[in-house]
Amino acid sequence: MNILVVKPSSLGDILHTFPAVDLLRREFPDAGITWLVNDNFAGLIDLLPGVDEVILFRRQRWGQFRHWHECIPFVRDLRQRGFDLAIDFQGLLRSALLAWLSGAPVRIGFHSARECGRMFYTEKVMVPANLNHAVDRNVFLVQSGLRLEGEMRVPPLRQHHDFDKFARQLIQENRLDAGQGLLAVAPGARWASKRWPAESFAKVIDSVAQERPETVVWLLGSEDERGLAEEVRAACRVASPANLAGKTNLGTLCEMLRASDALLTNDSGPMHLAAALGVPTVAIFGPTSAALTGPYGPGHRVFSAPCAVGPCFRRTCPQGERACLESISSKKVAEALLDVLSGETKPSLS
Fold first, then answer.
1. 30, 137, 171, 275: least CB-packed within 10 angstroms?
2. Cα dist. 272→290, 318, 337 in Å?
3. C-alpha of 43 from chain center
4. All CATH 3.40.50.2000 domain ranges in the chain, comma separated
5. What is the pLDDT of residues 9-64, one digit of tens each?
6. Global pTM value
7. CATH 3.40.50.620 fits 2-145, yes or no
8. To which CATH superfamily is domain 161-349 assigned?
9. CA distances (Å), 286 to each of 103, 327, 332, 338, in order?
């Protein structure tokens, strides 16, 4: 069997699809599995064992009119691969169309696919109302669409020697191995409405420094988030976290998180990566829903803002700038993080 997985983006959404694709691999050990993904997320697929090939969808490039002609050979190559089955985990018109263009005679997708995407499926799966989290919904799509009875698991992510080596170098160069415990902090997020104030992050980090002075703290993020991480570092009055924002690629970030004891984070890509690695997270949720896309698995703590209109899923706060996030107590977050670092926590939502 030749299987096409369609899940082009984004970082968290792709990670939420890993358990479903892992189930596919275990149920069909001799099948060829190909993943169609946006070119900027191609490295992420390499973390999952069992995927045989990756097809790059150059969304940004092909979104420009002068490059549209490149789509013709892309579709021709897609059809020539002879897929028997295509599974669309994205549930949008574009992804459903790509599944159809693959020429696969069997095309599975969500009955709730948006933008009329379900018109392109041969099998439309209705997900039970009690399945909220994206991981569970993706696994059910595979189980129901293919009548599988295999158990779901969170698959182990592949470890690469070169990335592990570079991560160890960063840890040594920044003296992150000088203490007894390593805390990662991710103050960034794609939406401004998801970002907890820098001062709140700093208060939590200072509390950890006071209660657990042996814990070393490092700040992570993209190059664009380096200034935000610097705001957090500058706001600290007790701790001296290392600002490594912009200094790690995806593979190195994976190994740096793997070496950390916990992650303090907004609802962001690094949160999902840490959860996939089994690293306990303390996550701050504002406009989005932890029930739908929170850190998956045991050992995590989630703080959701008490807001009358939340979760609103808006990029800008309708109540004022980050009004919901600012209502989350840094003291309570610090207490939860200290419990996580001491290994005394139990998974819960706050």
1. 30
2. 11, 26, 17
3. 13
4. 2-145, 161-349
5. 999 999 999 999 999 999 999 999 999 999 999 999 999 999 999 999 998 889 88
6. 0.92
7. no
8. Glycogen Phosphorylase B; (3.40.50.2000)
9. 41, 10, 16, 22
